[in-house]
Amino acid sequence: YVEYLGEDEGTNVIVLYIEGLKDGTRFLKMAREVIRKKPIIVFKAGRTRHGSRATMSHTASIAGSDQVFEAICRQTGIIRTYDVSHAFDLAEALSKQPLPKGNRVAVISAGGGHCVVTTDACGALGLEVPELDKETVQTLEKYLLPHAPPPTNPIDLAADPRPMTVANIVELLAQNPRINAIITMAPVSIRSTNPAYIREVLTAAEILSEIPRKYGKPLIATAMRGNMNGIAFELMKERGIPFYEFPEEASRAMYGLYRYSQLH
Fold first, then answer.
1. In a domain, 93, yes or no
2. Domain range holding 225?
3. Domain Succinyl-CoA synthetase-like flavodoxin spans what residues (predicted)?
4. Which of 224-257 are b and which e, b meaning 16 or more Cβ less than 10 Å from the residue's Cβ?
5. Does residue 96 sit within a domain?
6. Do 37 and 74 sit in the same domain of this protein?
């Protein structure tokens, strides 16, 4: 499968569910070749003693040492996940976004708690959320509401309801050479029938959607599940912006991009 999918032009990312390897040497050789062209993400079952026994009864596959498999992943550049859903979080980002040129991430959200949790999640995965320089902070402050805290990164929008606030801040950060990637809330919910407001939401969505192509930096969007619908959301999805509900999911997706970028 790996050999075939590695050559398949319609496949951008390979996601594998593995219980055991019957020919570890061949798998290792093939994975090394394929990873030069496209990422491989693996979820391996049978990590525990009881799980290993279950794989034997299920497919007669010997799960083998989990430590050995972990070493194989590190040697080859395989991205390993420990939750099935995490594999697909990473795959969506890797199939749609450019690779970052470093691990420095800008975080933008409507509330302080979300900012802190995202920053913690990034840090736990080896991603840096660097403090912005004084000049950048002063420029960003011009876009924020008076009661918003200093935008040193992460940037707390303090529940700013204006869609273009996000778009303007993200574009400014995308131009900053010290920022390699962006995780931002996306103002996709249309809460008014006012034509001017609807136009602003769509304009903001278009600006955000163009960031990866325009600046060559990945953009990961977050939104509440109930807001992941409507014309602005669909516009961004169609243009390749991946959406996640929780800070940990968004951070994990960005980590996948950074991890694979280290092989290039």
1. no
2. 105-261
3. 1-94
4. eeebbeeebbebbbebbbbbbebbbbbbbbbbbb
5. no
6. yes
